[in-house]
Write a structure and sequence with these properties.
There is one protein chain. The chain is mainly alpha-helical. The chain has one domain. The protein is 39% helix and 9% strand. The longest helix is centred in the first third of the chain and has 16 residues.
Length: 88
Amino acid sequence: MSLSGPWNQIGKLKLDVEAAGLDLVRLFRASPCQGNRVTFWLDCWVSSIHLFSRFSNMFTIEKYKWVTVEKRCKVVNGMRMFDFCWSR
């Protein structure tokens, strides 16, 4: 998978959600960037599908499989950003 591969998957998810007329923020089941009990990949916090299932290629190269949402979701200059840690 190329380095741009994971970002293409993330961009496609955003497009899929918008095309379905859904608001991504309203789909969150846990509040991003708060707490340390919700795992990014293994808990259903975005939809009813685990992220490790939806983005299996990204999960494969994730360095820390049990990482929390708090560790992956950062707020930089008032914008939410994902901070991934890939193994290569």
